[in-house]
Amino acid sequence: MSASTTSPALPDINAETYPFEVVQYLLDRAAHLSFFSVGGQPGSGAILKDRSGEIIGVRVSENLHRFIIEMRSPSGSGLRAQNLMGERLAHAEHRWMFIPEKFGALPDREPPPTRFDPSRSQRFAMMDTVVRFENGRDGFRGFGAGQTFPVSFDGSPEVQAGAVGNIVEGFGKFRGLEGTYTYCGTLSPDTGFQGSLLCRVVDPESVIQTTIDLPDLKEVDLPETDATYLTFRGQKKNSTQKTQYTFDSNGEVNGLQLDPQIRLFYFDCAIDGRGEFRSTSSIGPVVGTMPAYIYFNVLNPGAPGTGDAPIAFHDYDDYIFFGPGGTMGSFGFDGGGGRILNLTNEQGGGGQAFNLTLAGAPGQKALRFGGFGPVVNGTGQLAWFQGLTAHNSAVGIAPHVLSTAFIARIHDPKDKLR
Questions:
Q1: For 168, what's the count of Cα atoms within 13 Å in the CB-facing half-sphere?
Q2: 267-292 pLDDT, tens per residue?
Q3: Cα gap 12→193, rounded to integer Å
Q4: Calpha distance 48→37 (Å, rounded)
């Protein structure tokens, strides 16, 4: 799979339907909602079984807590991040049902009974998702799919889980808004999911976003003691950074190659004293570079990109971080699992409006997408990295612009990153 500059016979993916800076601004009109999901207690009855007693799913009941991940600029001693869990902001209920490898998951299609096998990677569908916020008026219904990744750390088995979901219907502040949510953590049939949930909501009218300071965090103990979460952003430096097509052995387009920046990214959300749910975000300095390969045919994606028919893709990224003396280390992301959905951001639009351009930019094609995959190929000071990464993003096509948030869960029992 070799890369090449754009052929004259192909559409120029870097051509500006609207100026690069305008599309970047429109893509960034989104609220980033970071939660730490705490599942049930052991023996709480989360296991779903078939008639023969085999585990076929998990009834995931999540308390969603405010979660601040603050990664610091790389120093001589490596990467560092502060992980703080705060007050409960919402509660989520859904069924995570294991599914066959080739099963086409849909919101109204009940999966066939599929036995859970903790020894191998398995797909699952997130059915009947309902998220309700503590203020009693905001929330959404959703649907998604994910995959398990069995691992063993120091002889202790663990089932990591990544997933991507789509907001199907919002209520309260979420009414009429679109969004993608990504999971990155662990799954236990007995207690459910535990880890990061990042929801990116398209918010052109700043219904959720604010520039006002949020209430102070009411810190509570983080239940995970052997993992540290990192977060950062991927974006192009400017319009001079060109995206290239990649081609298969037959000369057919099979993806895109790009090399955006890595920047620090800070986001938070809370419910204020008036019961208003709000979020804030800010972009920090450049701390690295990110060679990326996105494998799907943008010219013929093979699916319409709706909630019922997302476009399949996979990707591989290298996150290369700079220290005071140059490159300090890197780690890779093997994103074999992921889904792209067409981005709709039409002012005043409904929850099912797909294949529309960004608000204020008629004719501008854009996509929102999420993915997940194992951490691989650590080098330098990050050679010891093991874990799972999820990304939650939006991109423009012609010009090719991106606004990507990454969360990596790194196995860190010795607190090397904290």
A1: 18
A2: 999 999 999 999 999 999 999 999 99
A3: 43
A4: 20
